[in-house]
Amino acid sequence: MRAHYLQHVPFEGLGSIEPWLQAAGYRITRTRFFDDGELPSTDGLDLLVVMGGPMGVNDTAEFPWLAREMVFIHEVIASGAPVLGICLGAQLIAGALGARVYKNREKEIGWHPIQATAPGGPASFGFPPSAEVFHWHGETFDLPPGAIRLASSQACESQAFQVGSSVIGLQFHLETTPTSARDLVANCREELIPSRYVQTEETILAAQSERYDSINRLMGEVLAYLTGGNG
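Given the sequence above, the corresponding structure tokens read:
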């Protein structure tokens, strides 16, 4: 099995997704848009993961590869392969499926709760009724046609969505590890202007290991759902 991921900046990698994929027997390949940006054929892809990044879906003048990336995402979705998008990745999926992506009324950075908005079951993935997860986003999106909203928060209505049985977009970061949280803070510290939903660097990095363990387990559940229980 082959999993491919799309990486937009060096400091936003797979995090806890990587050991999950390795344990499930996947061969992992990647496209680095900050490097050569070469995209593979959609043939033979068993899973596509689209990572986050500080740029926005509409920043195509500065990052022209975004348009090419959305075409590729649309092609993979059309092929029927499972697709997972995280933060910018979720916004790119929404954009690839024709939904509007725009600035949210609030930035949401740090550890904040989400609430499930779908019960789970055969039709959709089910999140816990409430879960405290890691956020770093300032944009949002309309739901793509036919999508189910899976989770919301006080700061952002569309926190997670699902299209069909094989496409899930997450505004939040379940893959975050202590190392990746430190990397995000180090590279995006200028965004940490305290407000209602933006925590300080000290608060973000004070999270205990149990908090990371909890979101990483939930990330594994999302991956298992998308891939039919592998891992």
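Residues 41 and 72 are 9 Å apart (CA to CA). Try to locate this feature in the token string yourself.
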